[in-house]
Amino acid sequence: MSAAIAQLMENSLRSGLLILAVLLLRAVLHKLPKRNLCMLWTAVWLRLALPVAIRSRFSILPNWTSFGQTLSAVNDGQQLTTATASSPVHDMDWGLTVWIAGLSSVLLFALIRWLLLKRKVREAIPLRDRLWLCDWVETSFLLGLFRPRIYLPSDTTESDLPYIVAHETAHLRHGDPWRTLAAFLLTAIYWFSPLVWIAFFLYRRDLELACDERACREYDADRRAAYVDALMRAANSTRSVWTSSLSFSAAPVKKRALAVLHPPKCRRGVVFLAAIVSTSVLLCLTVEPTVAEFVPEPATETMEEPTVIPSADQAKETDLIGDSSKKEDILSGEDTIRLIQGEEVISITEFISEDETGNAYLTFTAERTTRNGDSITGDDYSEIGDETE
Amino acid sequence: MSELQLGIIEAKFADLIWEREPVTSSELVRVCAERFQWKRTTTHTVLKRLCDKGLFENNSGTVTAKMTRDAFYTRHSRQYVASTFGGSLPAFLTAFTGGGRLTEEERVELLALLDRDGGDQ
Question: Are A114 and A244 spatial neighbours (Cβ–Cβ below 8 Å)?
């Protein structure tokens, strides 16, 4: 599996936790203005868009990076077996292939839906400003990113018009067409994660509620009632398009009607407090533990059979035996090789030392111990090699 | 010929033709582009659809009407009453007046109509 896909999966884990947290916060903080709740979702989308790990020692999260590495290892293992069995042509990165297939399907589906919608509104006629009437649309919606148009069913009641326009204009003020598109693209990239899909649907619902809120901000009870009337009339069809259209009657109508008619009051202080709590929670779930730097251990080799290495006794008989008094300051780091044969461990250490005359010596010491580190019979420390540089 | 229902915009388009017929299709395209901001292909698509419904005829670029506007709306209403009120005119009238009373004007007009029709039959 390519590193990119492993990272993607890793990031979806990170975000999954965040999404669950936002779901919880949303439920708890439902009295807050919806506009603020949308900010929680923005945190999720940012998390998905930037697969950067924020690390700190103070973290309550497990280590996601190991998961990614495990996945890579599994897939690499698979690749190795298939590669040896057959020709290199079959050496495919399955993870990447499946992901691309999924992504293409999602994007294609959305593209087709968008094209069908554009075809539907071909016969629309302009009413005024950016309002258009069309025979074939069941509900009013916003379509287009750069010069968005508001399409209305041709039989829209005249009196409903100002409310529909207020709602759709609120969408424009918030920049919702762009937000929805960005969220959709991220959802397509993380198509394999059900939590991301849930986040996407709920995000759009919250955007709708936020727009109702904004449109009805200045309305008194009568106008709010009229708004709800318009909403009800528009709610026959709840067809929604995933890309850049935002329909007037998406999201459960009952909930929206209640929200408009009985707007929850919320004091400034509470909002502030909620913001602090939310930020803390999200931060806690974002910060990951620092991963120890992978430093290759000084070569430790475990072998079935030990290689030929002169024992301490034998070493004494060679010409290489030097004088232990030559060992002075150790100038360079030590390298230790441990050879294990049964219960016996032979540790050979190599280092460079210098005597008072400034000559450098490459020195080897050998130590025979049991596995536990206990030394064996007296021959614990002897020099077996000593070369003059 | 079965479906004589028109959408509101289709009806506006049909009115355009009835006002001007006989008219060339290119002239029609120009008017639609101006009023509706329709593309040429769109105008042709809608025109074809209405021709298929039996309202108009497009003979090598000239559009003519196969039935007058009144004739169309008569059939249209008849079809509506047939499908919605099982063909019963009284039922339709009851629904139309909303169970309330007719104004004096409406009564007079209605009686005159009934007399005339009664006389014809």
Answer: yes
